Amino acid sequence: MVAAYDELLDRARALRESGVRGRYAPSPSGPQHLGNLRTALTAWLQARLAGGAFILRMEDLDRPRVRAGSAAQILADLRWLGLDWDEGPDIGGPLAPYEQAPREACYRAALEQLQDRASVFACFCSRKDVQQAASAPHGAGAGVYPGSCRRLSSAEVDERRASVSRPPSWRYLAPAEEVAFVDQVSGRHVQQLTRDVGDFVVQRGDGLFAYQLAVVVDDALMGVTDVVRGADLLGSTPRQIVLYQALELPVPRFWHVPLMRDARGRRMAKRSGSASLEESRAAGHSPEQVVGRLAVSLGLVPPGAVLSAGELLQSLDDDSFRAALRNARD
Predict the structure, then answer these.
(1) CATH classification at residue 223
(2) Catalytically annotated residue among 11, 108, 261, 270
(3) pLDDT by residue (tens digit) across 91-117?
(4) Domain span at residue 60?
């Protein structure tokens, strides 16, 4: 059973003050490809080099995408590579549970805080409505919410609720100012949310909490100090930063690592069937060979290196690790 939001937050603050806390948060929607595992290895190295704790969390909030047996396979794959964790879905920990599905009460508590502060609004637009408004002359542009429901009065909201058959989504009221942050890998980034994204969804009309809200709540309530993840999530970071600030939660450091590419130069992705660890094992590759390949691809070790995760950790220090990540190319 998940503890109350405020109780978890108090525990997380105490743990955060004790040192670095990193995490890896895969989605159990199918086999992890080598690019996913390279991110896991990088996150593990970052936490261990800092002498910190490493957390494993299953992001299973989007239940229709969850595949049976996938979570167990992810745990087995990580262990086969030689990675360990201090808290996770299989071993528990002080900030359990380490799956998203049982944590919906925490997301709801955060949403209610945003509602109380008038930081969110009910939106009755369908995806098609947003696309049509964005593509119209003088529209906001592809993918940018045009603000159709942002200024509805209470009476207009009630009228929409009565006339529209589907429940509304909840959108965060994007601030007009620029959001800037310094990524530990790629440096300073700036985004203007109203221009580049618009008001964004924090809870969908079907009741499912959006990734942007869930990941902020989870990382804050697990005391995460450092978020290491793929560079494909770099553009979502400003949205998460404004949510941290709106909820008065500490903002972690971000490390967005380059995405791994296949032999054809394409970014690895589950949907394109990129090489999985299962295929490497079937080909007879050892954990040391796979770790070596992943480390070489980031410039952490010379070409041809074959070594365990523990040996890789011992060969690095914080400075060499940071330098290699900053020199890596997507």
Answers:
(1) 3.40.50.620
(2) 270
(3) 999 999 999 999 999 999 999 999 999
(4) 5-108+212-327
